[in-house]
Amino acid sequence: MREEYIDKIDKELERDIREFRDDEDLIDILSQIFKSLSDPTRLKIIYALSKGELCVSDISLLLDMSQSSISHQLAFLRGQRLIKVRRIGRRAYYSLDDEHVFCIFKDGIDHAMHKL
């Protein structure tokens, strides 16, 4: 029965799905991105940084959270390469790593708002 069904699947579609299924490195990276974005505090930080470059004290003030907890989450997001840092003297300014991070985040917001 299974073989009969597989015979009806478009071969290009089948090849595409099997290539994705077997690309463990890609799936691992993608999984890590979504895990990173699953934390409410990190989502708030990503939202703040989607508005522009900010330092820890700015983010702390805007989110009404301690600088220590913000710094911890920023380090995690940097490790996942979702944000980047620019240093000027002793100050560190954070921003989204690239446009892709914003697109993933924005699409998530759009989908969530559609569900409301």
UniProtKB/TrEMBL annotation:
Ranges where the HTH arsR-type domain occurs: 22-116
Presence of the UniProt keyword Transcription regulation in the record: yes
SMART domains referenced in this protein's UniProt entry, alphabetically: HTH_ARSR
Xref: PROSITE patterns: HTH_ARSR_1 (PS00846), HTH_ARSR_2 (PS50987)
Record carries keyword Thylakoid: no
CDD domains linked: HTH_ARSR
UniProt KW keywords: Cadmium resistance, DNA-binding, Transcription, Transcription regulation
Superkingdom: Bacteria
Gene3D superfamilies with a match to the protein in the record: Winged helix-like DNA-binding domain superfamily/Winged helix DNA-binding domain
Gene Ontology MF annotations: DNA binding
Record-linked PANTHER family: ARSENICAL RESISTANCE OPERON REPRESSOR ARSR-RELATED, HTH-TYPE TRANSCRIPTIONAL REPRESSOR CZRA
Name the UniProt record assigns to this protein: DNA-binding transcriptional ArsR family regulator
Organism this protein belongs to: Peptoniphilus olsenii
Lineage per the UniProt record: Bacteria, Bacillati, Bacillota, Tissierellia, Tissierellales
